[in-house]
Write a structure and sequence with these properties.
The chain has twelve helices and 21 strands. By secondary structure, it is an alpha/beta fold. The protein has a nine-stranded mixed beta sheet. Strands 15-16-14-13-17-20-21 form a seven-stranded mixed beta sheet. α10 crosses α12.
Length: 504
């Protein structure tokens, strides 16, 4: 009678991948609550890495005493520091997001919503790799060879020389890698793989962690570039354990509305380049095409004379991009006015409205405020503060901002305009696109450019005055009656309440 394999119960955190012998209400590693999941693991496979190293050691006759010398101890000062060579395939937007090109031996994770174009992008990239003489292996666990061949036919790419397998078992993929010795491997997707050493289902935390770890070990040992395709949750985070993002060298997120033709590839982590670099793509019938001038794309539909529209000079990594920010301020019919944002931080909007009320005497306590960054791009930097406030004032007062005016600057709680990084590059980018008036923080004001008026401001009041002229900004009379109709209280009744301050 054959003896049954012993199993043990392990508790794994779904957020960080921490293993524990028992359940905890709070993960001891990441401090998250209710994230410990139960898994049954074969006891014989629990220490397979150590057993493999031990077997190799015994085979060479070194034994246990030689384990201390298995890793060479080096003097860090004697190690030659050199940049990793990069492979350029002629896909400029993808290479930009990667930090300047593909790095051999690196491990890349690309995440995004279903149907966003991840498989299409990688199929195009691998075909370009093969054209340069690289040996590439495309492993798909979601699509059959026929489906991938049909996609390649629709895209019009040459797949001759591209090796393809439809497989989800990790051990078979490892054997094929050892047999074919590819230079690049695409795993589409990592959530579909499973290892026979684990009893958990494909896509579980333990399976994703195990498969990614073993493929990463192969990549580092053999110098193979591995690209994982990862699915995301409804919240936009990568499905599976967060430790997956820590294992890889580069994490890219594919963003965009599936109903739109434009996609944004954003670098969230990159050991070989700067983070927050983006690549902009357009989806066509021949696949994804890079957009070389995203600023022109985002500003293509902006019209002259529309109140609430302002051009902001955004910095994505090392790349200045001009984005249209739209604001709509309207009378609220609810006791709690709405504050809705698309592409910007909603909490920061609340703070900016308080600054606007305090230093410019424009109140939105009974107004709905809607804010939108056109193009689906997400603005993460505080340099957009001044542009957001100017757009809100423009909508409130129904005064349009010239389409030839660009704005950037951080606004402090005291109403001061703070300088931002790489101001000169932002100004040069706006001037190249034909903007004739640029409003910047005073400390970011640089040398004049022929045909471009660069105005430096140091507080919010001056900025509003520069944009909208010397006349006092007035509200809609129906929303804000004249000062005589308001009930005023003496300063003795409210000694801490400052008197109303005129806008100028």
């Amino acid at each position: 009678m054959a003896s049954k394999s012993k199993t043990k119960t392990a508790w794994v955190c779904s957020e960080c991948g921490y293993d524990a012998p028992k359940w905890f209400g709070q993960c001891p590693s990441c401090k998250a609550y209710n994230t410990m999941k139960e898994f049954r693991i074969e006891a014989e496979s629990s220490n397979r890495y150590a057993r493999a190293e031990q077997a190799a050691s015994n085979a060479t006759g070194r034994g246990r005493a030689a384990l201390a010398g298995t890793s060479d101890i080096l003097d860090l000062s004697e190690i030659e520091a050199k940049e990793s060579p990069r492979i350029l395939i002629g896909f400029s937007e993808l290479e930009r997001a990667l930090g300047g090109g593909f790095v051999p031996g690196s491990v890349v994770l690309i995440g995004g919503d279903p149907g966003i174009g991840k498989s299409t992008l990688l199929l195009q990239a691998m075909c370009k790799m093969v054209a340069l003489g690289q040996v590439c292996l495309y492993a798909s666990g979601e699509e059959s060879p026929t489906q991938v061949a049909l996609r390649a036919q629709r895209l019009g790419v040459n797949t001759k020389g591209l090796k393809f397998i439809s497989e989800i078992q990790l051990e078979k993929i490892e054997a094929i890698i050892e047999e074919t010795s590819p230079q690049w491997v695409v795993i589409d997707s990592i959530q579909t793989l499973f290892s026979e050493d684990l009893s958990a289902a494909p896509g579980s935390v333990s399976q994703v962690k195990e498969c990614a770890a073993r493929l990463t070990r192969i990549a580092k040992r053999k110098g193979i570039g591995v690209i994982f395709v990862g699915h995301v949750t409804k919240e936009g985070a990568m499905a599976g354990p967060r430790v997956l993002e820590h294992m890889v060298d580069t994490v890219l997120y594919f963003e965009g509305d599936p109903e739109s033709n434009y996609r944004i590839l954003r670098a969230c982590k990159n050991r070989f380049g700067s983070v927050n670099e983006i690549g902009v793509f357009g989806m066509t019938d021949k696949g994804l095409r890079g957009v070389r001038n995203p600023s022109a794309l985002f500003l293509a539909e902006r019209r002259e004379g529309v109140a609430g529209s302002v051009t902001f000079i955004n910095l994505e990594g090392t790349r200045p991009i001009l984005i249209e920010i739209q604001a709509l301020v309207d009378k609220s019919m609810l006791p709690n006015p709405k504050r809705l944002t698309v592409g910007t931080d909603a909490q920061r909007l609340t703070m900016l409205l308080a600054i606007l009320h305090r230093h410019v005497t424009l109140s939105t306590y009974d107004q709905d405020v809607f804010l939108n960054a056109v193009g689906g791009i997400k603005i993460n930097e505080t340099a957009s503060d001044l542009a957001v406030l100017i757009a809100i004032v423009s909508s409130m007062t129904n005064q349009a901002v010239s389409s030839k005016t660009a704005i950037f600057g951080e606004v402090g709680l005291g109403g001061e305009i703070r300088p931002v990084s790489r101001g000169q590059e932002r100004i040069k980018e706006a001037s190249k696109l034909g903007f004739t008036r640029i409003i910047v923080p005073l400390k970011n004001k640089a040398a004049d450019i022929p045909g471009v008026e660069i105005i430096g401001v140091d507080n919010l009041r001056d900025a509003v005055k520069v944009v909208f002229g010397s006349n006092r900004v007035k509200h809609d009379e129906q929303v804000y009656p004249d000062e005589s109709s308001r009930v005023s209280l003496s300063s003795s009744e409210h000694p801490l309440t400052p008197p109303p301050v005129p806008i100028w």
